Amino acid sequence: MQYNQTDSKRTLWRGVWALLGLSGLGLLLAAVIGTGDSFGTIMSIFSTRFLGIFIEAVPFLLLGTVVSGLIDAFITPDDIARVVPRNPFLATIAGAFLGFAFPVCECGVVPVVRRLFNKGLPMWVGITFLLAAPVINPIVLVSTAVAFGVGPVLIGRFALTILVAVGVGLVFATGARAQDVLQPRALMPVMGGSGEAAANTIIKRKSFAAGIRDALNSANGEFFEMGRYLIIGSLLAAGMQTLVSQETLLALGKGPLISVLVMQMLAFLLSVCSTVDAFLALAFVGTFTTGSIITFLTFGPMVDIKSTLMFLGVFQRRVVLYLILLPLLMSLLAGIWLNLNIAF
φ and ψ at 315, to 5 degrees? Predict the structure, then answer.
């Protein structure tokens, strides 16, 4: 039975790669015809952008899997129970600030939050952490302050991130069940998680040497598991950057509504790591509204192409859709409100 399941997964991934390859080839051929550039030129641009996205993201995915391995080795469910408040509202707010304990970006946060789910972190707290941590951490705080100074963009980015992340977390806290939200491998073993999760659960703390060895072994497996989602997401992001002219998008970026929509689209397509996206956003100052720039810096770290693919390894498919739409709509409304009501 196990062999059949493994074989089916391999067949599925082969089909995904084949479909992705054929679709990418067709789109690249369309780009050659539409732009008049040679196929070699298009492929060169595509390769450069793919490697740029992938190389930028891999170190943070590696950091996230190492942190995940350390959590697996040294943190017990009792530790989670002691730290997380029992009140759902207070627990959700606490989840928004867990990024200061685990400073990871949108690539590294996914394996970390899955491991915390295995250790008994409440589902809605984990979702809040997942959305907030790529921004609410000291590294991003410093990079945003360096790029924009201490002012409206810095304050707006962090305030809006907390508002959206806590809001989405409370939506899931009001009635959603963990088994309906999470993949079996992400569930705490006593709640029906996979046998693999149960085998990896540590009740007693190990020695430092044994814990480090197990942490590295766990990180190794999780890095390659999450890495395939990162590769596909990077390919899709690079393809969109190659086929969709940024000049075309910039031409649409005027007005309180359109500017926010365009910047959200850019954030999703460009898939820039949250540790450096402030410097990219700085290039749009003077061209785009401040509300749209804050939206770019809020929505992008929460949801982009590569993180969406990685969500599928933790959440049920329909839940992934909610995790895209809820932050999209909340940040959209907030960006429009900022443009209409506040003079920066």
Answer: -115, 155
Domain range summary for the chain, segments of one domain joined by +: 38-341
CA distances from 327 to 82, 122, 160, 165, 280 (A): 30, 20, 10, 8, 21
Whole-number pLDDT of residue 250: 65
**Joined tokens for residue 30:** 């369309």
Of the two residues 44 and 136, the one the predictor is more confident about is: 136
Tokens coding 75: 């943190």
Residue 274, token pair as written in the block? 């949250």
Q: Is 185 exposed, middle or buried (0-12, 13-18, 19+ CB in 10 A)?
A: middle
25 C-beta neighbours (distance < 10 Å), count: 10
Q: Counting beta carbons within 10 angstroms of the beta carbon of residue 97, is it exposed (0 to 12), middle (13 to 18) or buried (19 or more)? A: middle
Q: Alpha-carbon distance 22 to 322, whole Å?
A: 29
**Residue 14 in tokens:** 């082969």
Residues forming beta bridges with residue 315, ordered by sequence position:
182
pTM of the prediction? 0.74
Contacts of 295 (CB under 8 A, 6+ apart): 160, 260, 263, 264, 267, 331, 332, 334, 335
Among residues 327, 337, 323, the alpha carbon closest in space to that of 289 is found at 337
Q: Which residue has the higher pLDDT, 197 or 17?
A: 17
Partner residues linked to 288 by β-bridges: 285
